[in-house]
Amino acid sequence: MSNSNILIQPTKIQLDEIHFWLKEEYNKTHQGFYCNWPIIVEAFEKDRLITFQSYNKAVGFVVWRAGEVHIDIDIMEIAPHLRHQGIGRTFESYINLHFKEAGFTALKLFCEPRESENFWRKLGFIKFPERGYSISDLTFYKPLISCLEPVSESSFSNRIELWNCDPYEKNKYPPIWIWEIKNNLNPILHPVNCNWNLRVIINNNLFTEDKVKYVGEKKWEIDHSPFLYIRKSVLRSLY
Prior knowledge:
Elements: E1 4-7, H1 12-29, H2 37-45, E2 49-54, E3 57-66, E4 70-78, H3 87-101, E5 106-110, H4 117-122, E6 126-127, E7 139-143, E8 159-162, E9 177-180, E10 188-191, E11 197-202, E12 205-211, E13 223-224, E14 227-230, H5 232-238
């Protein structure tokens, strides 16, 4: 979209522009995010509000929070008169680039309203697996980096195996996700429960196995709940 950009630190001018069209939408339809105005103002005050600018007007915004390696998108909205024109896709691409350049590995969000699920799926967002917490089935994430994909077999001599259960239950089930360890890898990024069982096999021998939060607790730093994030340097040290 031409004549568009994002403002990482919008001013009161942009906040007032957002307020105008949010309130107008609410007055007409009783829908939208005007009911969350205190949250939007708080985000503005804490530098957690990004606006989408078109011809120097704030016509979209994102409220965000930073996790250890990911960004939570709490609210993303486009002005009503500009919806269904591809602006949301453009805005999301700007957001992706900004947070990727800032060193984050993924975006995470809750689809609200439920009807927005299809929009996020089209943008490449992936549904969170069941993690054993009271998490909505409308929680999605999108990697901002190239990641090592799981494989469908466990015959590789060097591999990482992840269960979706505690270690005491691991013998009841096979691992759900398996990654082959080899040279010149991308990192592993995957939603996780920190209590799930993780096993590392090197040359077909057990290298280490424990809950995710304990495996390489100090040296590797792989538990970044709600994500497992194993950096390339860790994988290469195992190869």
